[in-house]
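Task: sequence design from structure.
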């Protein structure tokens, strides 16, 4: 099995005993087709999990060319190598950002109208994957937590530890259907073990709770009563409310996330 982007946030939290990793941190760039083919030629893989991408809605505004070349051209390269070497299963990680500001809860049938460049690049990746000649699955995670250092939980915690003001974008009413990172591994294992009866399939991956930003901030204030907050204007590309209906994932794979968001965050903070 090949996992691209295995040193990214999701990849680091996967526990697969045997796989070959391909990550930019180690000098392996999915935009470099010659090197990528060398790995495919040697590996004789049956399954590829394609995680490698530049992530982050706000950073895509700052670094547009890197996002376009990595997330679109890089995905094209991975798909073409999967086709050439007859990969039996390709699992591509897209993003909930492809839905833009669609009314929640969104389903796999909801229209896709991304409002960020990042979302546009992931939607382009989906089209590349769905036009391939090999069996594929697209997974769209909704705000994976605990998250990267630049995401809300660890960003606020870092600001608190540095005795800085906690930055809140918009007001406290924004809502998210967070996905626990451990659930990503659970879904992947189900997909790998299952015999696929489809050519191309897609699943939204989210939690069973809808979390209001104000409730998350209240938890921080409960644990750190002396924190200071600064409310900033919400960036245009930020989405106010987004969560998904996981009926399809529940029905096809028997996946059922546990409602433990606040318990897990509390463990991190304490």
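Answer:
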């Amino acid at each position: 099995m090949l996992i691209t982007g295995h040193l990214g946030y999701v990849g680091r939290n996967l526990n697969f005993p045997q796989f070959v990793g391909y990550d930019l941190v180690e000098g392996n760039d999915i935009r470099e087709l010659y090197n990528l083919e060398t790995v495919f030629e040697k590996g004789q893989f049956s399954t590829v999990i394609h995680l490698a991408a530049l992530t982050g809605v706000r950073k895509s505004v700052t670094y547009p060319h890197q996002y376009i070349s990595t997330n679109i051209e890089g995905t094209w390269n991975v798909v073409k190598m999967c086709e050439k070497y007859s990969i039996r299963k390709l699992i591509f990680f897209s993003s909930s950002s492809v839905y833009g500001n669609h009314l929640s809860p969104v389903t796999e049938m909801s229209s896709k109208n991304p409002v960020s460049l990042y979302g546009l690049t992931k939607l382009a990746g989906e089209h590349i994957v769905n036009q391939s000649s090999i069996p594929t699955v697209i997974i769209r995670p909704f705000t994976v937590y605990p998250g990267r250092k630049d995401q809300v939980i660890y960003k606020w915690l870092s600001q608190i530890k540095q005795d800085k003001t906690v930055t809140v974008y918009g007001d406290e009413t924004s809502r998210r259907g967070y996905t626990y990172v451990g659930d990503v591994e659970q879904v992947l294992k189900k997909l790998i073990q299952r015999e696929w009866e489809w050519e191309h399939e897609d699943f939204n991956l989210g939690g069973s709770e809808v979390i209001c930003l104000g409730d998350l901030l209240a938890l921080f204030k409960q644990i750190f009563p002396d924190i200071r907050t600064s409310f900033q204007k919400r960036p245009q590309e930020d989405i106010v409310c987004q969560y998904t209906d996981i009926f399809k994932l529940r029905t096809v794979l028997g996946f059922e996330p546990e409602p433990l968001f606040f318990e897990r965050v509390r463990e991190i903070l304490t």
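The longest helix spans residues 64-84.
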